[in-house]
Amino acid sequence: MRVTLAWIVVAALLAACTSGPQRVTSDQTLERYLSYAGEPVDRFNAIRIDSWESLDDQHLVLRTGPNDAYLLTVYATCRDLRHTHAIRVVSQSSRTVSRFDEIMVGRDTCPIREIRPLDIKQMKADSEALRQYREAEKAGGG
User: What is the pTM of this model?
Assistant: First the structure.
């Protein structure tokens, strides 16, 4: 009986460890961004780039303002994009980024294949609505 009870406790502890918050994969992050992506564009104004986020070896997000961001797809030559800490945008113009420009990652040259604007305002609104829903659900005991 004691051995059986010990196994039940071990099983319950293991189940508790695996039922924590799920880690978001890069595929899920990419899918989320794609759901807010507009139609492809040839170029966008980029007087400054505020930040960037690597999603995988072919996708990154460039933020140019609080509500302005673009999902860039590069050709499959960007092996280290997922793991790099720095990128450089090589643009033919000082004020725009176009499909004919490149992202430099270390020594790799990554030509831009596609640019899609992101609806950041809607993304923020949806995240806030989800946060409020979860708080209400938690407060209601559900």
Answer: 0.78
- DSSP codes of every residue in 62-106: EEEETTEEEEEEE-TT-TTTTT-S--EEE-SSSSEEETT-EEEET
* Tens-level pLDDT at each residue, the chain (142 residues): 444 333 444 344 444 444 444 445 778 999 999 999 999 999 999 888 999 999 999 999 999 999 999 999 999 778 889 889 999 999 988 889 999 999 999 888 999 999 999 999 999 999 999 999 988 888 876 5
Range of the domain at 114: 24-139
Q: Is residue 10 part of a domain?
A: no
| Domain count for the chain | 1
